[in-house]
Amino acid sequence: MAEAGVLICDGQELMRVGLRMVVDSQSDLTVVGEAGDGEAAVAQALTLRPDLVLMAVRLPRLDGISATAQVRAALPQTQVLVITACDRDEYAYAALRAGAGGFLVKDTPTAEMLVAIRGVLRGDAVIAPSVTRRLIDRYVTDAIAPLTDKRLDVLTDREREVLGLVARGLNNTEIAGKLFLGETTVKTHVARILGKLRLRDRIQAVVVAYESGLVRPGG
């Protein structure tokens, strides 16, 4: 199995050293480069085309959120995992909107960080547990729009139903069982939802589902 190339971007050298040790300790991961600021991170990503970027939020010259957006726009196959010293909700929300596949705090245990790295590499969404509930309650609840949100007009009733279940955290197998559909049919619905709404992945679909009012926290 080929090693996954990882680019590390953090303004603190000590943090870069620590992340390098974590990554290089694994046989299926390898560090392909390091950057100390956001502009360098984008430049190196474009040159090295890593499988994953470990991105800090607070960076010189260009912040990590803006750098994430630029990397994801230019290299859609490159995943980004944002790792920050502060679990502020606005950072998490901005990171996910920018296209990051995950958001962790720097004091995450090594074993959990490696699980998150591999999860993001697979295309899964990974969010620090301390952030998840607050993220939904504070930002999504406050921003809820009525169900007249025009973005959802392109979806069929069945696609809206599937999107709602995706937003509730169900996987394809669980959705198939709940709606009495084949798993392949569910995968097709999810692909069409992402295509029609011009979304990169399931995590962006979740954000849209809550923002549009299709799904409401606790509902």
UniProtKB/TrEMBL annotation:
Residue ranges of every copy of the HTH luxR-type domain listed in the record: 148-213
Start and end residues of each Response regulatory domain: 5-121
CDD domains documented for this protein: LuxR_C_like (cd06170), REC_NarL-like (cd17535)
InterPro entries named among the record's database cross-references: CheY-like_superfamily (IPR011006), NreC/VraR/RcsB-like_REC (IPR058245), Sig_transdc_resp-reg_C-effctor (IPR016032), Sig_transdc_resp-reg_receiver (IPR001789), Tscrpt_reg_LuxR_C (IPR000792), WalR-like (IPR039420)
GO biological process, one term: phosphorelay signal transduction system
Alphabetized UniProt keyword annotations: DNA-binding, Phosphoprotein, Transcription, Transcription regulation
Domain of life per record: Bacteria
PROSITE patterns, A to Z: HTH_LUXR_1 (PS00622), HTH_LUXR_2 (PS50043), RESPONSE_REGULATORY (PS50110)
Any one GO molecular-function label of the UniProt entry: DNA binding
Protein name stated in the entry: DNA-binding response regulator
Organism: Streptomyces flaveus
Taxonomy of the source species: Bacteria, Bacillati, Actinomycetota, Actinomycetes, Kitasatosporales
